[in-house]
Amino acid sequence: MNKVLGHDEVRTAFGEAMHHKRLHHAWLLYGVKGIGKAALAEQLTALYLCESPSLQDFQACGQCHPCAMLHAGSHPDVSKVELLYNKKKKKMNRDINIEQTREALGFLALSGLKSTRRVLMIDDANLMNNQAANALLKGLEEPTEGSLLLIVCHDLMRLPATIRSRCMLQVCSPLNEDNMQHVLHSQNLDERLMQLAMSLGQGSPGRVAALLNKQHAQALLEWQDLLIDLEHSDIGLVQKWLDKHVKDIPHDLIANMVLNATHDVMLNAQAWQTSSQIYSALLAVGSWPKEVVRAYFAPCACPDVIHFTITKCLEK
What we know:
The chain is α/β, with parallel strands linked by helices. It has three domains: about 10-170, P-loop containing nucleotide triphosphate hydrolases (Rossmann fold, 3-Layer(aba) Sandwich); about 175-210, no CATH class; about 215-315. The protein is about 50% helix and about 10% strand. It is built from 13 helices and seven strands. It has helices at about 10-20, 35-50, 65-70, 100-110, 130-140, 160-165, 175-185, 190-200, 215-225, 235-245, 250-270, 270-295, 305-315, and strands at about 25-30, 80, 85, 90, 120, 145-155, 170. A five-stranded parallel β-sheet has the order 2-5-6-1-7, with helices on both faces. A two-stranded antiparallel sheet has the order 3-4. Helix 5 links the parallel strand 5 and strand 6.
């Protein structure tokens, strides 16, 4: 298993707690999406189940039978809860439901088949619906011996306080510049895409995963070109690009590129009124991706927000 870059403090805290036999039964790993929290949970699972873990860097040996089963994805004492694909609707479900949670807790309550330990990982825990979250409380309040619950969450406040208070909270920070560059280099991005990924990623490789798609990468480079000289942009070409790509390209990447491009325009605005208008437009752009996700707005209605912002910059 490859070492996960970053999150050394979390791994060390977990390893020391395990070594001193004071490991809490539920660990909640939270932080922005795309920084490797799920991969970290998998590493902690391997460390917990490994027969010969390293006490120097708290890594699983990768050679024992439990490590081999984990690598093959066939360890019987590990289970995972995550968003499921709805075959009928041909898309991912919006939330994690109570049936998934109950089934997982039933697994956690059983005795281990290969050892006395069992691990349940819950990814995207902030997407549990209220019933699923309430069902999880039972597993947190009445843990079975040897059981370990690893919860991955991208929005901590979306989880009920009753769940947060029963877990060992561990914040996972975005990757530093060196680690971010290392991850991006391993993905064979060319120099221009590397620069764009570093600018937009903000320490989260997952945030710029769209750049691994050649069509999306080319589209975002075209978008960057349209925004280079915002005061002289062709608003018709901007609208044409949005109409073509807004349904496929992640909204936060589109919006953040607009925010970056308008930075200099804001600083150089001559009149207070103009600056105020651009600022109001930028607030709309900043809230746009979140509202799309949280309120499930129709994507076709969203280009107007970007169009309005750029128009205000052109009017300056």
